[in-house]
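Q: What does the predicted 3D structure of Lysozyme look like?
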Amino acid sequence: MFSSLSRSVGYFGVNLFHDVIEVQYRLKHSGFPDLVVDGNCGQKTVAAIREFQRRFMSLPDGLVEVNGATIRRLQSTAISQGNARPDAPAPQASNAPVSGGVRRNVNELSVSPQAEALLKNYESLRLKPYFDGTGQEISEYIKGATIGYGHLINGKGDFENYKNGINEMKSNELYRRDIYDIEIKTKKLIKNPLTQNEYDAVMIFVFNIGYGSVEKDKGFITSEVLKIINGESQVDIDEAWLRWKYANGHITKGVINRRKSELNVFHNGVYAR
């Protein structure tokens, strides 16, 4: 039975991002629907592995070995529940290209599990309010106050809802609301069809730089990237994409790396940081 695991996952595992994605995906479809597929092997993932192993092991170790009993059981469990073919790997977020090559109307597309996992990995889960510019926790509202997976807090009144923190369930609720809003608005701007990976890259990009405003000449709505996608500019898309390299007015290596990662998704279908 095929497994795309390259290294071990779980307690004292190697825990490469794309391998954790596969294990979390299979666990989610094997009786753990609330498990977050984010590429981070934390306590909840290890606990889910151990709980799953109790079905067939007397001493579960919380570790999924490459081609070991646990990954084979995870695959067969998903198959028995009608979630996957025997030879079908989980959605990848790795150096394995997943670009389909077929361009479709963007209204037929939505953010893929691979893109969601990569986006959440970039944003990181924060259960207390923090300032987006520095990452430092805050106790009072300031412009740029953020919580969860990059959810922007909208003013002092809104801050009161989050000042004492939130749980993971609420964070996922906010994320779903934010990405849905971004997709709905951004789709209306795009005139040309895109492949799945091109679409994913654009949505990850917009989630970070913002949909924007024509009046304020900011964000994706007035960007050169949008003009290129719509066939309204001959500027190189990589050059236009990499213009968005500033954080707090300064060129930042972390932002540049994120832009390069997004471009790797756009061109090659590689979902990795």
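A (community wiki): The structure tokens above were generated from the sequence. The chain has two domains: 9-80, 106-130+166-268. Residues 106-130+166-268 form a domain with the Lysozyme fold (CATH 1.10.530.40).
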